[in-house]
Amino acid sequence: MIDRNDFFSDDVRKAVESFEKMLQNRESIYMDEETLEDIIEYYIAKGKPRKALNAAQIALEQSPLNVNFKLKKAQAFNLLDDADSALALIEEIELLEPTNPEIYITKSDSLELKEQFDEAIACLYNALECADEKSEIYMHLGFLYEDKQDFKRALQMFSRSLEFDQNNEQAFFEIGLCYEALGNNDESTKFYEKFIDRHPYNANAWYNLGISFSKMQRYEKAEWAFDYAIVIDENLSNAYFNKANAQMHLNQYKEAIDNYLTTMELDGPDAFCHCNIGECYEQLKDYTEARNHYKKAVQLLPELDEAWFGLGICYDNEEKMIEAEHFYKRAIDIDPLNAEYWFAYADVLFALGLLVQCEHAFEQATLLNPKLHEAWLDWSAVKFDNGEQEEAITMLLDQIEENHTVIPYYYRAAGYLYKNGMQKEGLAFFERAVLHNFDEHTAFFDFFPDLLQVQKFLEVLDNHTNPKK
Prior knowledge:
Layout: H1 10-24, H2 33-45, H3 49-62, H4 67-79, H5 83-93, H6 101-113, H7 117-130, H8 135-147, H9 151-164, H10 169-181, H11 185-198, H12 203-215, H13 219-232, H14 237-249, H15 253-267, H16 271-283, H17 287-300, H18 305-317, H19 321-334, H20 339-351, H21 355-368, H22 373-385, H23 389-402, H24 407-419, H25 423-436, H26 441-447, H27 455-465
């Protein structure tokens, strides 16, 4: 398979192969300076700093006064987190080529490793004074200001980078992160809109505008922006993917499926696309297709807990509890700190009659997320149905004390109290619940259908709807 990120020519790759064969055979190595520099660059780009260091040392033995070889050796030291060795080399060459921006950039990288951020920034400003290509230097400055948590200055640097390179995808992305860190996504959209006014056919700007709208949960506007990005660049796979995400939030599940499939046509099979398609089919209640895509997701990425959980949901909805229990447990094994997983697992264990394990699962769910209200309600129901009425009532009263704004707690406590022989207290809780949220009384009678026959509950409802009566 051809690596699309491999920008090296066949000649360079052949030179590297020859170089490595000579090393392996312990042969005397002599190559022209340009070839040796290409070999060192190759190793640096491929993330092989030890090989780069070795090649640079061999090159310096051949040409000890070559500044570029010393510079490349310093860059290799930086990649090995040996900033002191890098700085020692840079000191040797800094005065020899005071207008070489690469020297200042490399020195800045060394100082950054030593967390001397102000000095690193000063080096980059020196680089700007003598560089023809300024976009990448502004990017480096932006990253350094991010390291200092100075997101306003970082934003300025990334914006300046775009002035020199309108297609700098990383700059667009970092600008969005800076606005997010500043808590100002609205300004983010304004920035992209102004940029689009000047450069209306810039697909990256439209794409990032869509991302910004998505962060603000303005999904219709996000879909609109992604559409423009796709019109400009029909191969922009991330735009299809994020458009599909927006469509999921808009309940446009069939349309989302199409865009996830297009993403994979462009980029190849992807576990997250299959997982999201599975969720779309799940929402459409096509559990067979949902399972097919969840299974494809875990085949591609076995540690994708959301897909294992999705498989559990499908079987749960089909009331195949043994299978659901198995897949919920797989999700929990991968992410044991997910309260939603424990909650779903607890309900399935209850359906299977495994009460001890069920109680443990509810305990885990509520410990991990004490505000998971449905879990408290279901756990209290398990206790009430299992003859632990006092414990169920105490559990809900404790929760009401912790969070008195959760009205379903009042409704449920009302039913438990009344059915446990405390009619007066039960009616008082029911009246308070009706006063705060009348509409939820229908869920109350769905859970306690026998209480619909109790005249006093109906009188409370009647007094609420007809106060003058």
